[in-house]
Amino acid sequence: MSYSWKRFLYSNALSKSEWWDEYFNLTFIKFSRYFYAICLFSIAVRGVISYKYSLEVAYHGNYKEVFIIYAITLSCLYFLKNAPMLIKKLVILTITEAMNCALRKFSITMNKSGSNIVCIDSTIIILLFQTNLFETFLPNLLIIVKHVAIWCLFDSENEIKASDIGIFTTNFFIVFLWTLHEYDKRKSLKELHCAKVAVCQAHKQLSELLSFFPDGLLIVNNQLKLKYANKALRVILNANDNDLVNCLQFIKVRKSECTVLEGIKKAINDEIKQSFSLGISDIKEKVYEWGVVNIEWDNQPCCLITTKDVTSVAIFERIAAESRSKSALIRSISHELRTPINGINLILDEISSEDSKISSKLGLIKICTNLLNFQIGDILDYSEIITNNFQINSFLCNLKFSLNECANLISVQAKYKGLNLVTKIDSLIPDEIETDSYRIQKVIMNLLNNAIKYTNKGDIELCAINTGKAIRVSVKDTGIGIPNERLSQLFSMFSGITDNSLGGLGLDVSQKILKKLNSEMKVQSTVGLGSCFTFDLKITSDIPEDSTSWENEIPNEGLKCYSIRTMSSKYIENEMASILIADDNDFNRMCLGNILRGKNIKFEEVANGYDAIEKVLEYDKGGYMFKCVIMDCEMPVMDGWQAAKMITNYYTQGRIKSLPVIIAHTAYSSKEDIQRCYDSGMISYIVKPTPQEVILSIVEKYA
């Protein structure tokens, strides 16, 4: 017999289905209980008969054999409850078959008149127990055929009577009903078992998935009894399942006196259905964030606690906070440096206009202040780059003029060092192109400064040509050159090369500026022969006629001043009005006052924002108005932003009749500072240091 055929017979005869094995175990337990009950009832009845008559009458003289049979059978049922399934089936089959044979013998020899009732009893025993030994239909059919044969054909001495046919028909009808019932019952049992298996598999898969989840997971019921904990949580708390919940009462939440366990209890009491954070805590030099939410687990209300390693996030936040602090410090330093430079330039402009004999020397001083201003701009730009606040401000400009201005600023240093500065500006470059000319000047100045720094003799060449698609700008020198191994680190300020570095802040900022302009700096260098830095600027010279006025654009350090909005002419008709200068620096107020005094323009001075408001109210009560307020932003008592906002609010509320034009005059030039000026009611922005002619143009426009 082949293996497949043996397997078929074995699977059909012994039933290896898991769901049927589970059902058979329940059948064996039920059979054992019923047999115990029958034995006890039989013993009780026989005991009553023995008490009334005699032991021989009750047991027909075979009481020892009966007690031995009962004892053996009951012991087998008790000790075989954990036996293999095949043995259990043999025990049930043997006992039921013995009972069936006993009932048949009883119906033939002792109670022929009640054989029908006894047959029905035998049928019930067969249907309840023997047919539950096997899952498939064929073994059960054989059992039924055997049962019918025993009861209908076993007594061959008698002829088949009509009553026997009735019994046969009754048995057949009972078997038919049982077959229908068993089919539906077994189908339902199988489906139920398959559903349970699917749920168990899903639960197992979920448990395996959660066990490898990177975040710690803990599930407790409302009595804080552990229901589930994954591997990550055990590693985090370094505890076993018995101590996990207890560990939570010793873990404190930052900036709070509560522990994690107290937060969980509060979440359970409040029945919070949405996930929320309990806070963060420190565990073994790491930072973890705790979350909690009420869920249902194993058909009972529970609480899910999650813990996530946020050490890297905390480090990033600390770095970001430090970057913001550094940026604020750089902005403050930049403001403090620009303020005296502004005063120096204003005084130089005033002296140059009075005495032409020393104008050349004063021009050199002004060149130095402009170069210093470029260096301050590099520092400020770098602070904006590292905080992602850097932006390009494009406008129409004369690029040829800007390049020549860079050459003029650097020519003094080149002449002093004995170098020949050559400027080649292509005449085909458009007179006006759209770009950030101030940032372009900073790039050129950085390249020219480096060229002078590393060139001892020879030439420095600034070249700009129109290639048709772009303007190619290059700075070439005959200096010491750059080694090949340093070229890749040239545009990184933090390259690790601190001694004799050929890079630095200027080149690093310049490269980032060019990337914002969709360009890139390229370098060619030979040690001992010199270097050549080149970049291309896309040409954009035409602007649609219906484009927004430049007065609506964001100002920058290149555009020293322009209007953000225009004021109605009714604000500048009163000839009695004057200029108000609000600045806490006496030096700046003196310089601005001298410029206005030289043009016979009346003005008032205050040292803080509060005094500026008082002065505006004072003039308004007298029937006059300030046409223009030059407002410094950073002042004691009350800063310029707050003062401008209050003056604008006073006009909106009707407390003053006329609103003066408020112009910011400060060294701050970041995007946030500019927006803050707009929000406070200022309509123009002047970046320090500011040339005298720019200040006069603003005053003449509004005064």
Descriptive tags:
alpha/beta, five-stranded mixed beta sheet, Heat Shock Protein 90, disordered N terminus, five-stranded antiparallel beta sheet, 22 helices, Beta-Lactamase, 15% strand, HATPase_C_sf
Describe this structure in words.
The chain has helices at residues 3-14, 18-52, 55-59, 63-79, 85-109, 115-128, 137-153, 162-211, 231-237, 244-247, 260-270, 311-354, 359-386, 399-417, 437-453, 484-487, 505-516, 586-598, 609-621, 640-653, 671-680, 692-702; strands at 216-221, 226-229, 276-283, 286-297, 300-309, 395-397, 420-425, 433-435, 459-466, 470-477, 522-526, 530-538, 578-582, 603-606, 626-631, 661-666, 684-687. It is an alpha/beta fold and 703 residues long. It folds into 4 domains: 13-191, no CATH class; 212-309, PAS domain (Beta-Lactamase, 2-Layer Sandwich), CATH 3.30.450; 392-538, 2-Layer Sandwich (Heat Shock Protein 90); 550-702, Response regulator (Rossmann fold), CATH 3.40.50.2300. The strands form 4 sheets. Strands 2-1-5-4-3 form a 5-stranded antiparallel β-sheet, with helices on both faces. The longest helix has 50 residues, at 162-211. The model is unreliable at 1-16, 494-503 and 541-575 (pLDDT under 50). InterPro entries: 2C_system_His_kinase, CheY-like_superfamily, HATPase_C_sf, HATPase_dom, His_kinase_dom, HisK_dim/P_dom, HisK_dim/P_sf, Sig_transdc_His_kin-like_C. The chain crosses the membrane at residues 34-51, 63-80, 113-131. Keywords: Membrane, Phosphoprotein, Transmembrane, Transmembrane helix. The modification 4-aspartylphosphate is found at residue 632.
